[in-house]
TrEMBL record, chain A:
[4Fe-4S] cluster 3 binds at C124, C144, C147, C150. This is Ion-translocating oxidoreductase complex subunit B. [4Fe-4S] cluster 2 binds at C114, C117, C120, C154. Residues 105-134, 135-164 form the 4Fe-4S ferredoxin-type domain. One of its GO terms (biological process) is electron transport chain. Keywords: 4Fe-4S, Cell inner membrane, Cell membrane, Electron transport, Iron, Iron-sulfur, Membrane, Metal-binding, Repeat, Translocase, Transport.
TrEMBL record, chain B:
Residues 364-393, 403-432 form the 4Fe-4S ferredoxin-type domain. Belongs to the 4Fe4S bacterial-type ferredoxin family. RnfC subfamily. Residues 563-577, 914-931 have a biased composition (Low complexity). It comes from Marinomonas piezotolerans. This is Ion-translocating oxidoreductase complex subunit C.
Length: 197, 938
């Protein structure tokens, strides 16, 4: 009988000790905020466009961490969905609302039509529009994320979303077509010369 | 001269060299082409900024573009001529895209600008020499075009053990460096010595492949002659021994760690061409405007090396070296391993063009189709960077970029050795290039999204701060409102205290009032400070603290002033000497009576209907009068008669004033009640009565004061302003009534009674306003006429502007509606009809607005033009404008119909409509033309 009681007593004491350690560790090594939200937020494209139905990327990140679908970010495209799926270890769903890949766009104000109402300035989530009341506005193209939010508020409809074209500086090699395809314009494979010689 | 040790590097291949063809002929120099095309981005880094304008003349060697940032370069005119254009032209780039270029039309004189060599390069600081090299547009001529000054600057980070001159030229076909060494041996050696002076390395080694015996011999001979410490390391021919990292491994047995630069391990590499260019820049002041280029390949009848001006179109070189068009299958810039196919020979030679390869089909047959990887591992054996090409291929193919990076994808030098040996003809390098680009894009977009996030958060913080500020202001206002009664007390006390030392000078009085006000202010401030401290608005606290300190300072100053004032008063009091005791007594009586009277009057103001108070006031007045009379009598001897009359008069005036104040206060009270309960007829009657009384009192007062002051005109004005005031009150009353009713109406829109009332009130309001305007008019007329005119003009243009904006908005609405309509049409939704109606409505609105705008501008235009004699011209102009608008409208109609027709091409009705619309448009256009013609004829 004594041994049983002793065993119980020892276990209780051990439980209390470890409980105390865990409790202390919880206080001592407390992590501020939700790290998973930060990780999700880092993957999202930060256009702050609200197309996911949330006011900005971070709210959507919080929603995802609370179980919302990961395929609601059109600017991020399928790549973002894939990255989120890898991070959260869930299945990668097809992008909500079509398969089309995002094209990077930038807002351009037709400046002679601008009446200086400042409505687009208020709409821009990242302060990328410059201007003042009754003065012409313009978009800082380098900062524009192409989120579309300034187009709707414009009373004179003078904002266009222009595709950012490829220049020789942003151009990159295409991915080869794969097995069986005829490569085009590729050097570095002139072993046939050797064969011919 | 000792021969340095030569080591080996992993992998590498031995493709056929094909170097002999281009060395049969001596160095050629093509004549000037018709135009020189100089891309702004010939180097790694930011494109240069043009310094010249289209049409300006430049001399040979003149700078035409300046560096744009740190990693950038200058650009110089290769010959004298005029700037023909600065525009997009096809450049030598694998993408075949165009880029901004400066196009020079040579004048044929080839006239040099005055050159300024850097003679004292050994004496001036190294930074100056580097800056000089940058200004001469020197970039690495080996392949990448890295700005030389940046590379040399980077070499200063660590003490250099080796300064390696790259003369390996490992790629097949290319012999430009070989020819350069042969032709400019001395320049090369001198250039190396200059750069060695700048970097001060322990060893200077020229790395050269053993397939250039002539070049090696001439180098060794010259070095022996000059007894230079430069070493020549002859390396075995193997591709790619000319790669920077491979050459370093060959000559020093050191490997450049992944992700680092040679400078990090104390080694600097420079191409021979760069050394020669640096020498010519420093010694003669010549900028980089030409280079050695190999023209080779079976398609050339006369393959050779040429010294060619930068910007020369490749087509010009093809002609020079006698291209056989029939044999040409592919035109390649660079060597067969690392070069790229050119889509067009119009691209120009740039600073990094070392070879133009015009290959026949036999030389460069089209690559075989890609086959599956058989995991033979030959690519691994060939890779000079020691990577695992097969693994990288899997990862690149399956977009596993992280893993590819982990396998050091970015250490791949894209030499093409793996593709060359691959038995399955897999274009491995292209896979790697694609994967690298994808990874770089992802990094860039990550940076961009980080910036966007920062900006978004900054904006949010700003908005929150603004909201908090607003809230704080609102609270402060609230506090101010509650603190007002408290603040009133001291101000009230101040005048109370003031009458006692009646003779005390104005300054003291003023100071006291100021003091009271300041104290009240302090109280208020302290209160808001406390609140701010509670709510922890640190910024506010600071600002408030400063304010509190200031007011405290003010108070102490004012207190000092007030303390000084009583000291001054006794001396002043003493001045009216010779006054008898009686007189003094009488004065005291007067003062007492007047103070009592004032008190009662104040009470009366608060409670104007109190009969008792009125009686009291009358009694006090009588007392005051008798006391005053006594005083007058006593002081009469001393004072002159006119002054007596004045006091008597002022007595009357005072009385009138009191009446006036009473009446006006009563009136105000009644009006307030009226505003609250506007239908009360009794109150209205009362108000009218009071008004009458007030007027009477005022008249009386005016009569009294009018005698003393020559105020015949003045009294005129108050009467006027009185009426004016009344009219204003009426307007305000009517307004409030109207608003009230409208509010009720908004709550209960079906109430006809209320509607009737609103109409009535509106009428009343209008009448009142008319009255007011009538009253205002004469006063305005009395003012100068011009401002009034100006005013109208101003309002006119203002209205016009407003109209313009309205039109713009209306137009936008039309556009939006049309867009929605188009969408609906594509979706074939049911509400097309309603949308069409909307479009029509919006258009009608826009048109009507335009019409009014036109009318407005017409009247506005004609009005000022009336005064000007050119009346007809204006009319004509107007007509023209109108015509223009109608033409534009007709055109828009045509366009719209066309669009609709596009949507449904089979609709006959639409076709008919379109035809008629086009006719109308033509007619309008013809009219417009006629009008413009007549306009021009004038």
């Amino acid at each position: 009988m004594l041994t049983v009681l002793l065993a119980i007593a020892i276990l209780v004491v051990l439980a209390l000790v470890f409980g105390a350690i865990l409790g202390y560790a919880n206080v001592r090594f407390h992590v501020e905020g939700d790290p998973i939200v930060d990780q999700i937020d880092a993957i999202l494209p930060q256009t702050q466009c609200g197309q996911c139905g949330h006011p900005g990327c971070r709210p959507y990140a919080e929603a995802i961490s609370n179980g919302e679908a990961i395929n609601r970010c059109p600017p991020g495209g399928q790549a973002t969905v894939q990255a989120l799926a890898d991070l959260l270890d869930v299945e990668a769903l097809p992008l909500d609302g079509g398969e089309e890949e995002p094209v990077s766009k930038v807002a351009v104000i037709r400046e002679d039509e601008c009446i200086g109402c400042t409505k687009c300035i208020q709409a821009c989530p990242i302060d990328a529009i410059l201007g003042a009341a009754k003065q012409m506005h313009t978009v800082i193209a380098d900062e524009c994320t192409g989120c579309d939010l300034c187009v709707e508020p414009c009373p004179v409809d003078c904002i266009d979303m222009v595709e950012v074209g490829v220049t020789s500086r942003t151009w990159s090699w295409e991915k080869p077509q794969g097995v069986g395809a005829q490569p085009v314009n590729i050097i570095a494979t002139d072993r046939q010369v050797e064969a011919a010689h | 001269m000792q021969t340095p040790a030569v080591y080996s590097f992993h992998g590498g291949i031995h493709p056929p060299e094909n170097k002999a063809q281009s060395l049969n002929l001596p160095l050629g120099s093509p004549r000037l082409p018709d135009e020189l095309i100089l891309p702004l981005g010939q180097h790694i880094g930011q494109p240069s900024r043009p310094l010249v304008e289209v049409g300006s003349r430049v001399l040979k060697g003149e700078a035409i573009a300046i560096n744009n940032g740190f990693l950038s370069s200058f650009l110089h005119a290769p010959t004298s001529g005029t700037i023909h254009a600065i525009e997009k032209r096809v450049v030598a780039h694998p993408s075949g895209l165009s880029d901004t270029c400066i196009v020079i039309q040579p004048d044929g004189n080839d006239q040099w600008i005055e050159l300024e060599p850097l003679d004292n390069w050994q004496d001036v600081s190294k930074t100056d020499v580097l800056a000089f090299l940058a200004e001469k547009g020197i970039v690495g001529m080996g392949g990448a075009g890295f700005p030389t000054q940046v590379k040399l600057q980077g070499a200063h980070k660590h003490p250099l053990t080796h300064f390696i001159i790259n003369a390996a030229e490992c790629e097949p076909y290319i012999t430009a460096d070989d020819m350069l060494i042969r032709e400019k041996t001395l320049e090369l050696i001198l250039g190396i010595e200059m750069l060695q002076h700048l970097v001060n390395a322990d060893n200077v080694v020229i790395g050269i492949e053993d397939n250039k015996p002539t070049a090696i011999a001439s180098l060794q001979q010259l070095i022996r002659e000059r007894q230079s410490s430069i070493q020549v390391a002859v390396v075995p021919t193997k591709y790619p021994s000319g790669g920077e990292k491979q050459l370093i491994k060959l000559l020093t047995d050191k490997e450049v760690p992944s992700g680092q630069y040679p400078a990090d391990i104390g080694i600097l590499c420079q191409n021979v061409g760069t050394c020669v260019a640096a020498y010519e820049a420093i010694q003669y002041g010549r900028p980089l405007i030409s280079r050695f280029t190999t023209l080779t390949g079976d398609a050339f009848k006369a393959p050779q090396n040429v010294e060619v001006l930068l910007g020369t179109p490749i087509s010009h070189l093809l002609k020079y070296a006698d291209l056989n068009e029939k044999h040409l299958s592919r035109l390649v810039m660079g060597g067969p391993m690392m070069g790229f196919t050119l889509d067009t020979p119009e691209a120009p030679v740039v600073k990094t063009t070392n070879c133009i390869l015009a290959a026949s089909t036999k030389e460069l047959p089209p690559p075989a189709p890609e086959q599956a990887c058989i995991r033979c591992g030959m690519c691994e054996q060939a890779c000079p960077a020691g990577l695992l090409p097969q693994q990288l291929l899997w990862f690149s193919k399956s977009q596993e970029h992280e893993k590819a990076e982990h396998y050091n994808l970015f250490d791949c030098i894209e030499c093409g050795a793996c593709s060359y040996v691959c038995p399955s003809s897999i274009p491995l390098v292209q896979y790697y290039r694609h994967a690298k680009a994808e990874i770089r894009d992802a990094r860039e977009s990550a940076v961009k999204s980080d910036i966007a996030k920062q900006r978004f958060e900054a904006r949010k913080a700003r908005q929150e701060a603004e909201a908090a500020e607003k809230e704080a202001k609102r609270l402060a206002r609230q506090n101010a409102a509650s603190a007002k009664p408290a603040a009133k007390k001291p101000t009230k006390e101040a005048p109370k205290a003031a009458p006692e030392p009646a003779v005390a000078n104005d300054d003291a009085k003023k100071a006291k009032i100021d003091l009271a006000i300041a104290k009240a202010k302090l109280k208020k401030l302290e209160k808001s400070l406390l609140e701010a401290q509670e709510k922890e608005h640190t910024e506010e606290i600071n600002a408030l603290q400063i304010q509190v300190d200031e007011t405290q300072k003010d108070i102490s100053e004012l207190e000092r002033k007030v303390a000084a004032a009583p000291n001054a008063t006794p001396t002043k009091k003493a001045s009216p000497t010779g006054m008898s005791d009686e007189a003094k007594k009488a004065k005291v009586d007067v003062a007492l009576a007047s103070s009592k009277l004032k008190k009662v009057q104040k009470q009366l103001v608060d409670d104007p209907d109190n009969q008792e108070l009125k009686d009291k006031a009358a009694g006090f007045e009588a007392d005051l009068k008798t006391a005053q009379a006594l005083l007058d009598k006593l002081g009469g001897e001393a004072k002159a008669a006119p002054s007596k009359a004045k006091t008597a008069l002022s007595e009357d005036a005072k009385k009138a004033k009191v009446d006036m104040a009473l009446a006006s206060s009563k009136l105000k009270k009644v009006q307030k009640q009226l505003a609250e309960d506007c239908d009360n007829d009794e109150l209205k009657a009362k108000a009218a009565e009071f008004e009458k009384a007030l007027k009477e009192a005022e008249m009386r007062f005016a009569a009294c004061s009018g005698e003393s002051a020559s105020a015949a005109q003045k009294s005129d004005k108050p009467v006027m302003s009185d009426e004016y005031k009344k009219a204003k009150v009426d307007v305000a009353l009517a307004n409030t009534k109207l608003k009230k009713v409208q509010k009720q109406l908004a709550e209960d829109p079906q109430n006809t009674e209320l509607q009737g009332k609103t109409v009535e009130f509106k009428k009343v309001l209008k009448e009142a306003e008319a009255r007011l305007a009538a009253l205002e008019a004469p006063s305005l007329q009395s003012k100068e006429a011009t401002p009034a005119v100006k005013n109208t003009v101003d309002t006119n243009s203002d209205a016009q502007r407003k109209l313009k904006i309205d039109i713009a908005i209306a137009n936008a609405a039309v556009k939006k509606a049309e867009k929605a309509l188009a969408k609906a049409q594509t979706l074939q939704s049911e509400d097309i009809d309603s949308l069409e109606q909307q479009v029509a409505k919006a258009k009608a609105h826009a048109q009507s607005l335009e019409q009014t705008m036109k009318n407005g501008s017409q009247s506005a235009n004609t009005a000022p033009l009336d005064s000007v004699t050119d009346d007809k011209a204006a009319e004509h102009k107007e007509q023209l404008k109108k015509q223009k608008v109608t033409t534009a409208l007709a055109k828009a109609q045509v366009n719209k119909l066309k669009r609709q027709l596009d949507a449904e091409p089979n609709s006959e009705q639409l076709q008919k409509d379109l035809a008629s619309a086009e006719q109308a448009h033509q007619a309008e256009a013809a009219k417009l033309e006629q009008l413009t013609n007549t306009q021009e004829n004038r």
